């Protein structure tokens, strides 16, 4: 589903002393099937933005369009539930939303709310358990027995079981160990490609934005600060540092190489090994000329 | 979170009322609440109103803001007035319409009672408006201290109070977060038949309880790790101290009450 924001503003508690403008005149378009990273400092409006994607919040001004669904300030949406069926949101620390007696029931909770036939749910459960890399043997166990990382996988499986076409991820790797982070992100990327999902990732990790996203939106104080391809955005180090954002290590490294040896290596999602060979050949080339 | 309800909210300011010892404020309000019931003449009511308004203006909080914050209570005050208006049967009949008779005594009684009600609410809400919850807890602990002699767990009670006050906003946030997460999974809290809506509370309550218990356990461990072992021999970061201004305030209040007894009929 294509997603577009048209001059969207959102104000918390308008006309009170506690008034707070969380989004200001925000416009952007996310074509169906893209992987978008939303980046910004704490309080830049990221969480407010993603709550517009499934109608938890309605803009106070402007218009949000998700596929055929339109969200506007003074128009109540009647089909909000079917919008939520299409947009799966994995919130921060999603393991806090588990509540059923067994893992199986918890995963089935979402699809059941959306009136998915029982047979279809039965079919999806093993699929999503495989997607999040959990054994089927634990299905009948209570979710609260699991470790934190496993609970998070169950919660993610619960969202995936809704079979959404848009997947919204709010810092899905926060609080996991580095290996777990990598696994979860690889899993989302694989799903994104296999199921042709539109994925929106809110993250603090520039590494993840660079590695997975094909489009990046940087927010600052509720407004759009930069937008574009990650490789292009990371060329503007000074502009990023002005909003306390850093370069990914790999880009930083390549810049240092350029400063030191005067050879430029564009980043094209090479692996470490490929990069090493590339640097080696280029460096040798430089020394031969001298 | 602020829905225009002022009760229990703290509004920071630098007035001398804010700086008064919380015990002074609690005691004053405690006795004010009692002595309001002694007022029985127009003059005595006027005197108490003068006192309440003076204190209100001394807080430097905008009066309109306070009145607006009391909106939910206005209903109760009007209700009290109407109740007295129709039920009391004293004095002469003033109006007779349909089967209803309105007596002169009823109007006087209604005005007096609802006015008393208004004074009570105004003054008690001044306490929470000008005193942080922590200060109130400290003051209660200090005022209840004598009960220690009869083995009443004063310190524990105060600790329980401050912990629960501290975690109210946290729980509110948590509730909002979880209800949003469950709404995203298709739970409908707002529409549908009552039975469905009651059932929709389960996915909200279970995670809330789970995290509340987890948090309690973590808090207990953190307290123990920092050597907490009950109130015995524990010193305070914020010592409550009665200053000259507190003494002056209490004496002024005592004078106000004395004058009240002269104004009674």
Automatic annotation (TrEMBL), chain A:
GO cellular component assignments: ATP-binding cassette (ABC) transporter complex
Localization in the cell: Cell membrane
Protein name per Swiss-Prot or TrEMBL: Energy-coupling factor transporter ATP-binding protein EcfA2
Subunit composition and interactions: Forms a stable energy-coupling factor (ECF) transporter complex composed of 2 membrane-embedded substrate-binding proteins (S component), 2 ATP-binding proteins (A component) and 2 transmembrane proteins (T component).
UniProt keyword list: ATP-binding, Cell membrane, Membrane, Nucleotide-binding, Translocase, Transport
SUPFAM superfamilies referenced in this protein's UniProt entry, alphabetically: P-loop containing nucleoside triphosphate hydrolases
GO molecular function: ATP binding; ATP hydrolysis activity; ATPase-coupled transmembrane transporter activity; cobalt ion transmembrane transporter activity
Membrane topology value: Peripheral membrane protein
Ranges of residues in domain ABC transporter: 3-246
Main location: membrane
Enzyme type, top EC level: translocase
Known EC number: 7.-.-.-
Role, per record: ATP-binding (A) component of a common energy-coupling factor (ECF) ABC-transporter complex.
Top-level lineage group: Bacteria
Protein family: Belongs to the ABC transporter superfamily. Energy-coupling factor EcfA family.
TrEMBL record, chain B:
Superkingdom as given in the UniProt entry: Bacteria
UniProt-annotated location(s): Cell membrane
Main location per the UniProt record: membrane
Keywords from the UniProt entry: Cell membrane, Membrane, Transmembrane, Transmembrane helix, Transport
UniProt cross-references to HAMAP family, sorted A to Z: EcfT
Family annotation (PANTHER family): PROTEIN ABCI12, CHLOROPLASTIC
Stated family: Belongs to the energy-coupling factor EcfT family.
Protein name in UniProt: Energy-coupling factor transporter transmembrane protein EcfT
Organism placement in taxonomy: Bacteria, Bacillati, Bacillota, Bacilli, Bacillales
Gene name for this UniProt entry: ecfT
